[in-house]
Specification:
about 525 residues; alpha+beta; 17 helices; about 10% strand; globular; metal ion binding; FAM20; transmembrane
Length: about 525
C-alpha cells in the first residue's frame, strides 16, 4: 500500500513539473515580452500638428485609464476613444486628390461617352437578334461614389466622419447593375484594352467590373470557397484561390485600425443571369456562360492562369455571393504608380528573395530612396502589420497616388489572399503559417513603428475594445454576415499578440525612442516654405 502511494505521489509530481516546464513557463516568458497594455491616454481631442505626435507619451509601465465601462457597442466606444478623434490640420487644396469641378467635368464626359456607346451596342445586338436590357443612367453630383472620390486626401482615402462611405456601402449592396465587363487589367494581359488605365496587370482569378445605375463602379469577386476552408497544407500561397470574404474583412479591419487605406467593400448576392449575362456588352464575356449538369448558371473568365471552364463559378441557380469593391478615380484624372514591395515573397517553388538570404538586407533598404527619409518605411511597417493580421502573403507591390509624392500613404489594394489560415497560426506550424511569422519578423527588422499605430494596437488587446469583438460587430453589418468564422476572429487576437511581442522585443533591445516614431516626418526630397510637420 505504501509503495502504491509513493508511486502515485511520484507520478503527480512528475506531471506537475512537466506542466510547469512545458506550459506555465512558456506563457510567463511570452507575457514578459508582451508590451503592457498601456499608454497614458489623457487626450481629450489631441492634435498632431506640432511635430506629428500626440501629447501622450508611450510607456510600458502605465495602464490605459478606462474612461468608460458602459455596456453596449464596443465598436462605437472604440471610435469615440481619443485615439480615434485626433484632429488633423485643415487641408489645403494641394492635399486633396481631386477638385470638385475637375471631377464633375470628367464624369460628365464619361457619361456622355457611355450613352453613345450604349446606343451603338444595343443597335449591334439587335442586328444579331440579341436582347440587351437598357437601364437608364442617373448621374447625381451628390452620389456616394463621387463624394468618396472627393474625400480622398494626402492622409487617407476617407475621413473618420465621412458619411459617404456608409452610403457607398449601401449603394454597392442594393443599386441596380446596368453593365458588366472584364476588368481592365484582365484585358491588358490579353492586349485588349486601354492600358493607360492599368497600373499593374494581374489576371490570376476571375473578377468583373460592374457599373451601377448612378454610374458608380465596383469590382465583383465571386465566392469560390466556404468560410471555414483553409489553404491546404501542401499548397503554396500563390496557387490558392482568392477569397471574396477576405476583401470584405480587410476593409473592416483597415477601418478598425484607423488606416483608411482600403477602398470600401461590401458583400452582395448577384443574379448572374439578369445582372451579368443579360446586360453585358462584351461578347467574350457572354460566350463563357453555360448551364451546369445541376442546371445552375455558370461562367468563367479568359485570362492567363486559372481562368478555364474547370474553374467556373456558378449561381444557385442564378444567385452568386461575392464582394463589391469600390473603384478609385480613373488613372487619367488621379494617376497612381505601382512599386515593388521590398519584402515580397518569391513566386516560384525554388527561388528565394534577397531578404530571405541576406542578413544585412534591412539595413541596406533603410539607406535607399525612398526608404531613407520621410514616412515610407513606417508605412511599409503599417502594411506589414495589416497583412500579418489578415494572413496575406501576396503583397508583391503597393500603390501610391503620384500627386502626393513620396509622403503619400500606401494603398492597401487586392486583399483577397487573406484569411487563408486559421488555427494553424501560432499553433502547430505548417509551412505557410511559419512563412507568415517570418515575413512579419523580417519586415519589423527595421525596429520602427508609428506611435499612433502602436497606441491603437495596444488598445485593441484590452477587453473593452478587443479586436475580435469589434471586428465581429463591424462585420455583422454586412449582408453576407457572418463574413468570418469564430476561428478567424480568434486568430486575429493571437496575431495581434504576436505583433506586440515583436515590438516589445525591439523596445527592450533598442529603447523606445529608437523604435516608437512620431507619425510623420517630411521627406528630405520635399521642400516647403514652412517647417511644419504634418501627421499621417
Amino acid at each position: 500500500m505504501r509503495r502504491d502511494r509513493l508511486l502515485v505521489a511520484v507520478t503527480l509530481v512528475t506531471l506537475l513539473a512537466a506542466d510547469i516546464h512545458f506550459v506555465l513557463l512558456p506563457r510567463l516568458k511570452a507575457w514578459y515580452h508582451l508590451p503592457r497594455e498601456s499608454c497614458a491616454c489623457r487626450v481629450t481631442n489631441g492634435s498632431l500638428e506640432n511635430g506629428g505626435a500626440t501629447t501622450v507619451p508611450w510607456t510600458t509601465n502605465q495602464n490605459f485609464t478606462v474612461v468608460s465601462t458602459e455596456r453596449g457597442s464596443k465598436l462605437e466606444r472604440l471610435f469615440r476613444h481619443p485615439l480615434y478623434n485626433i484632429s488633423l490640420p485643415e487641408l489645403v487644396p494641394d492635399e486633396q486628390l481631386l477638385q470638385e469641378e475637375e471631377l464633375m467635368n470628367y464624369c460628365k464626359r464619361k457619361v456622355s461617352r457611355w450613352e453613345r456607346m450604349k446606343k451603338f451596342y444595343i443597335e449591334a445586338a439587335a442586328a444579331s437578334n440579341i436582347t440587351i436590357l437598357d437601364h437608364p443612367v442617373t448621374f447625381d453630383p451628390e452620389a456616394s461614389w463621387l463624394q468618396f472620390h472627393l474625400g480622398i486626401n494626402r492622409y487617407a482615402l476617407y475621413s473618420r466622419d465621412d458619411s459617404s462611405v456608409d452610403r457607398l456601402l449601401r449603394d454597392m449592396q442594393t443599386a441596380t447593375v446596368i453593365s458588366a465587363d472584364f476588368t481592365q487589367d484582365e484585358k491588358a494581359l490579353k492586349g485588349a484594352c486601354d492600358c493607360s488605365q492599368v497600373v499593374k496587370p494581374s489576371g490570376l482569378h476571375l473578377k468583373l467590373a460592374l457599373k451601377l445605375q448612378d454610374f458608380g463602379k465596383a469590382m465583383f469577386k465571386p465566392m469560390r470557397q466556404k468560410r471555414h476552408e483553409e489553404t491546404p497544407e501542401n499548397f503554396f500561397y500563390f496557387v490558392d484561390f482568392q477569397r471574396h470574404n477576405a476583401e470584405i474583412a480587410a476593409f473592416h479591419l483597415d477601418r478598425v485600425l484607423d488606416f483608411r487605406r482600403v477602398p470600401p467593400v461590401a458583400g452582395r448576392f448577384i443574379n448572374v443571369t439578369g445582372e451579368i449575362l443579360y446586360i453585358t456588352h462584351n461578347e467574350e464575356l457572354r460566350s463563357v456562360f453555360f448551364n451546369s449538369p445541376a442546371n445552375n448558371t455558370c461562367f468563367f473568365a479568359k485570362c492567363l492562369y486559372v481562368c478555364k471552364s474547370e474553374y467556373a463559378v456558378c449561381g444557385h441557380p442564378d444567385l452568386l455571393e461575392g464582394s463589391m469593391s469600390a473603384y478609385l478615380p480613373g488613372l487619367s484624372i488621379a494617376p497612381r504608380i505601382s512599386i515593388p514591395n521590398p519584402w515580397m515573397r518569391a513566386y516560384s517553388f525554388t527561388g528565394r528573395e534577397e531578404w530571405e538570404v541576406n542578413a544585412l538586407y534591412c539595413d541596406n533598404v533603410k539607406k535607399l530612396y525612398p526608404y531613407n527619409s520621410g514616412n515610407r518605411l513606417l508605412n511599409i511597417i503599417d502594411m506589414a502589420i495589416f497583412d500579418f493580421l489578415t494572413g496575406n502573403m501576396d503583397r508583391h507591390h503597393y500603390e501610391i497616388f503620384t500627386k502626393f509624392g513620396d509622403d503619400g500613404f500606401l494603398l492597401h489594394l487586392d486583399n483577397a489572399r487573406g484569411y487563408v489560415l486559421i488555427c494553424k497560426l501560432l499553433g502547430p506550424l505548417t509551412l505557410n503559417a511559419f512563412l507568415h511569422i517570418v515575413l512579419l519578423t523580417k519586415r519589423m527588422a527595421s525596429h520602427r513603428i508609428k506611435r499612433s499605430t502602436l497606441f491603437r494596437l495596444k488598445l485593441l488587446v484590452k477587453s473593452e475594445y478587443r479586436l475580435s469583438d469589434v471586428m465581429r460587430e463591424s462585420l455583422s453589418r454586412d449582408p453576407l454576415s457572418p463574413v468570418l468564422t469564430e476561428d478567424h476572429l480568434q486568430a486575429l487576437d493571437r496575431r495581434l499578440g504576436h505583433v506586440l511581442r515583436t515590438v516589445g522585443k525591439c523596445v527592450k533591445k533598442l529603447g523606445e525612442p529608437q523604435v516608437v516614431i512620431r507619425d510623420f516626418v517630411e521627406s528630405s526630397r520635399v521642400t516647403t516654405n514652412t517647417a511644419q510637420e504634418r501627421p499621417h
